[in-house]
Design goal:
Two copies of one chain form a homodimer. The first copy, chain A, is 46% helix and 18% strand. Chain A is an alpha/beta fold and 221 residues long. In chain A, the strands form two sheets. A seven-stranded mixed sheet of chain A has the order 6-7-5-4-8-9-10. Chain A has a three-stranded antiparallel sheet with strand order 1-3-2. In chain A, helix 1 crosses helix 2, helix 1 packs antiparallel against helix 4 and helix 2 packs across helix 3. The first copy, chain A, is globular. Chain A contains nine helices and ten strands. In chain A, a hairpin with a 2-residue loop joins strand 6 and strand 7. Chains A and B meet through helix 1, helix 5, helix 6, strand 9 and helix 9 of A and helix 1, helix 5, helix 6, strand 9 and helix 9 of B. The structure holds a DNA duplex (30 and 30 nucleotides).
DNA sequence: CACAGTTTGTTCTCACGTTCACAAACTCCT
DNA sequence: AGGAGTTTGTGAACGTGAGAACAAACTGTG
């Protein structure tokens, strides 16, 4: 029994699956735009670049949205995945640090098109204040608390230099943000309940370099 | 026996460990800059944001570079990790697609400082050709083959729109590039032996949104 | 030199993720 | 209606990764 929410058991979706759902969502959108209304797990898997068995297992965590012998309805599955991820609603986002990367992020169309809305661009440097980037005026970092409160912002993006990242994160958490996407090459420490995801360009290159070196080692000799 | 390369057995480092080595490298550099010459696994682990047992296990794949009862020599360990990753040598890199993101990548100091050298910026759009970004002139995409050959480029970065990404990847592979860092929101298919790593901003946000939604669901009711 | 204290390197166990293989369930054709 | 063909959903086997726990090896002190 353990009767909690009787209607909806809170399904526990594995983290690895969660990371792939957005990929499936994008692949389904591409299929829909090609006019395809139905697809098999094999079709979708190859569009998403994964194994079809893995795809089916991933989808099975959401429920049974396919039809045996037929496949999946593209629009229906797309909606179900979008709902599960939470991108059917609109997520307000603040970006802190409007350097080169901050500019690129502000102009990145993939944000707006996927249910994310940039509500503010913040930077500590006064000479940037008032400048318009992607149609949004850059504001002082101290406006953070006000903006987060007034717009119910839950997601923050850090695009500052490494030295500033921890301070920005602390201020974000204090202001009520509970999910952070960090582009600064720094380890952030945050209280429990706050999610941090890290995107680190030079780490990605170093991983490639490692494998490249291994390939090169094998060839000569 | 299986006597192949008698002196050096090609150690097989787990992928999860490889992904963390650059983090340790950065933490060690920070420690060295603080004037610290020796550290315990506990010190380094907390600087890198991981568990100390995991850190010791990771380092054990490289060899025994610590001293029991003492810890690790910062400079020595830093050199060993750098050598293992391959960043003691210089890696030439080409960046294709000089839009907002390409600009940011070209200006990103973390590349040069970590053993990576941007040898060319390429874009198909003629109006960009000749423009200087980060001290490097943007050249036509068709120069790819020449540049790769003359500079022995092994690593390419794709910062183009999604529709162009597969074409760029094909040309890169044909030119001899065997490691690709892809920022375009597209699934790339490449022949075996070519490594692709994907950095996808909107996927990261969507993963955060999923967890954010779960948190919000639990609170009311 | 012996012993207490410290820290590494490694073994063992458990959890997570991937892949295979197949029963269940659907469509279509005769 | 029945049977052949197709495709999903899932149970089971396998491989990889994480963390706890401990023996081995070092330092320093009396």
């Amino acid at each position: 029994m353990t009767a909690r929410t009787p209607a909806e058991t809170v399904r526990d979706i594995p983290e690895a699956t969660v990371a792939r759902l957005p990929v499936y969502l994008r692949a389904l959108t591409a299929l829909a735009e090609s006019g395809i209304t139905t697809c098999s797990s094999e079709d979708l898997a190859s569009a998403a670049g994964v194994n079809s068995a893995k795809l089916r297992k991933d989808l099975s965590y959401l429920g049974s949205y396919g039809t045996r012998g037929v496949g999946y309805d593209v629009d229906y599955l797309r909606y179900q995945i979008a709902r599960e991820i939470g991108v059917t609603q609109d997520w307000p986002v603040v970006i802190v640090g409007i350097g080169n990367l901050g500019h690129a992020l502000a102009n990145f169309s993939g944000f707006r098109s996927r249910g994310f809305r940039t509500v503010a661009l913040l930077d500590a440097a006064p000479h940037l204040h008032g400048e318009e980037v992607a149609g949004i005026k850059v504001q002082p970092f101290d406006e953070l608390e006000t903006i987060v409160r007034e717009n119910s912002v839950a997601i923050g993006v850090i695009a500052t230099p490494a030295v500033a990242a921890q301070d920005v994160a602390d201020r974000m958490v204090a202001a009520g943000i509970s999910s952070i996407l960090n582009f600064a090459p720094a380890v952030l420490s945050v209280p429990p309940g706050v999610d941090v995801r890290k995107v680190d360009l030079s780490i990605e290159l170093q991983i490639l370099a490692y494998h490249e070196q291994r390939k090169a080692q094998g060839e000569p000799a």
